[in-house]
Amino acid sequence: MNDVLKKHNSLMERIVREHGTMIRNSVHKAMGNIPWAEDIVSEVHFAVFTTLRKLGDGWTPPRSFVRSVIQNKVNDFLWQKYWDSDDVEAFKKRQAEQARQREEAIACVHGLTQSEFKVFRLLGLGLTNQEIAESLFISPLTVRTHVKRIHAKCGIQGRAKLALTAYQACYRELGEGHEAGAGAGAGAGLPAPEAAMFARRGLLAQQAS
Description:
mainly alpha
């Protein structure tokens, strides 16, 4: 695992260790017992991760700052829930359809070439094309080509959606109660189910290469 992956996996690990319980409690308190709660937990984790990544290493945010990031993201989902309260069934169907599309996209990941997957996993860390190019020692043009092919193969439009899918595919285990694979560099010593959110074991062999 290169320095970029080590750095960002370390950040993920810190978020889970220091803020994982707060994220989970905030989601369940606001949304209640809904089938797609874990998807929302994952998206809130990703929102916190991308925010802290942008801030860099020079500043350790206070807990109140992270709480505000969490609350803002949860409020987005809460607003959507109550906006659609007049048509609950339509809301449920849309959430179920989004979950199905996400799973189909993640299933397509196994069809990526090794080079495409290396770009894909770095998209999940929120890296720009330039940062990916520097990390993989390839040109930005090559990165752009790979990104276009990944969009096509996964059937995903939009950089943000692709980055979230990459995060969920490479750094979050959808099934709870499983330990991250050996050598993943994330989740070690973390409480379940948070420890299960990193690095799907089926992709670890590609991630390590």
